[in-house]
Amino acid sequence: MNADHQPSAEWLAPSDSPRWVGLDIGGANLKIADGRGRAASAAFPLWREPRGLATAITSLLANFAAPREASIALTMTGELADCYATKADGVRAIIDATLDAAEGRAVRVAAVDDRWLTCADAKESPPLVAAANWRLGARLVAGQFPKDRGVWVDIGSTTTDVIPIEDGKVIAVGANDTARLLAGELVYTGVRRTPLCAVVDRLPYRGRECPVAAEWFATTADVWLLLGQLPENPSDSGTADGRPLVRQAAVERLARCLCADRDSFDVTDGLTVARHVAAIQTAKIVGALARHDAEWAVFTGEGEFLAPQVGNNATVAATSVASGHFGTAASRSFPAHAAAVLASHELGSNL
Amino acid sequence: MNADHQPSAEWLAPSDSPRWVGLDIGGANLKIADGRGRAASAAFPLWREPRGLATAITSLLANFAAPREASIALTMTGELADCYATKADGVRAIIDATLDAAEGRAVRVAAVDDRWLTCADAKESPPLVAAANWRLGARLVAGQFPKDRGVWVDIGSTTTDVIPIEDGKVIAVGANDTARLLAGELVYTGVRRTPLCAVVDRLPYRGRECPVAAEWFATTADVWLLLGQLPENPSDSGTADGRPLVRQAAVERLARCLCADRDSFDVTDGLTVARHVAAIQTAKIVGALARHDAEWAVFTGEGEFLAPQVGNNATVAATSVASGHFGTAASRSFPAHAAAVLASHELGSNL
């Protein structure tokens, strides 16, 4: 990034501030961060076991060794999970689970109007806090890049946020997820969980184009693993078939999308498919970004490896990869990180 | 259908023949039929509980009151389920589970080359019996409509077979599922299980087009239920979210595809979405059928209600709905029905 687009100040919470931990409760992952660069993520299929949420948050806080005196800056997207009849029900359930797990720690909830609500107030106004996590990341980036027009791009496991910023202000138009989809500010594509049948209708196979099986047979994690952008992880079973995230299993999952198996689909076939899906998925993010006439773009999230490709194709003058400023962990849990940083600046110890 | 395209003979097994039951083991449903018009289907998520298959088949045989002296004409598509490393593994596991459940009944397995194999021979040549079920339905239709060029269209819960027939002969070119996808003879779309994100990229919402969430939030069962083509069934939990197949829950599932909920998406919105998805899905089947220059088309399966729409749009002169010949149950389990009919004609008691 050139000198005009350097971050203006600190990305991190002040070290002498009261301690806040940011907590971001998604539908498939729980994320936690201390605002100083430390962060963690735990896979949790909320839609499958909503009653286990409080226990899962308790474990997350314990594994993260969150201090007893730390307060919790909460944000969420998990209220959309289909275990909840409405988003309002989901918001209330997520707040209650967090309070259960908080063990007396103070909890404040981020609202889309940039306030921090008490849990009681948040439960009274679910639309204000539903899917507000993007707003935190966008505000943190806006504070760091106060010049010109730019865009914050958070490429996650499931979705991608593409949020326009101008002269230090967030200028997104979508206030809820439906409006954000319509505005192209929420792009429902990610580098792990997106099923292939939602990305493409056809895939290349030995010189021909084959229609894709409309099943949850493989996801983009298989694609980016084969392309070397995600590491193998034998203990990761958050895959389409629950088998490990390793190359051989990934090839077999991709095979199944064409109703093939390892007897008729090899690693070369897998790489061909992976490159095709990667190109389509990248183009989708490029398209969303190109709507914004951005001079600069800041990339966060597990998919920040797409920054060079997306930035070039969207002809953005300056791109920045957030992990370069404060490390990979916080980049991957950026809204949780931003929650801790912003709460610490904005709330301090005034609770 | 005009007189030239009437069925030529009997669709049913002779009543004095040795008893055969046809068994069709799919990845999501198990089907059984007696070849005389009686048939049944049981939802069974094979990919989730492969070890329960023998027990599930035992229950199916018991609930169907299959006689102890009946032999079993077996066919399958479930070997593609992602619980099996390869289709060959799947074929062997399905045959073993069937033998377990058969309790001494003879079992013969349908092959794509129109032979009936012993279980031992079938386990030696898995590609011959993998996904051979379409061949049975096609042969039965070909025998009934021996004139001119036509097409058998079996619209199921998950997939649609579109099989060309000429002068009483099946002239399909695909021998395995990948080849069948490539040939347009297997269309991976169905009236229950197909996720919306695999059918459409965008959906109409209050005068705009909204991108679709790439999640398993709703399926085509919700669409056809709202359009009155599938009945409400409070005990059917084979839906995207496991909640009942009833109208209110279907509307809420469709809402979630746009990141909305019942507070922002009502029955009218649901009907608009349903009509759009129905049109796209119908057009996909029309496109596959139109490749074949068919003079007649015979429709079977749960989705045979699409016959008039598909037949008209593909400009087929004569269409026939199979349930009119032998009832709804057998039409919905047509390959199982065909297995029983053909085994009874071709094998009789010569085992």
UniProtKB/TrEMBL annotation, chains A, B:
Question: What InterPro entries does the entry give?
Answer: ATPase_NBD (IPR043129), Hydantoinase_A (IPR002821), MfnF (IPR002756)
Q: In what residue span(s) does the Hydantoinase A/oxoprolinase domain sit?
A: 73-321
Name the chain's protein: Hydantoinase/oxoprolinase
The residues forming a coiled coil are none
Q: Give the Gene Ontology MF terms in alphabetical order.
A: hydrolase activity
Q: Which NCBIfam families match?
A: one_C_unchar_1 (TIGR03123)
Pfam families in the cross-refs:
Hydantoinase_A
SUPFAM superfamilies registered for this protein in UniProt: Actin-like ATPase domain (SSF53067)
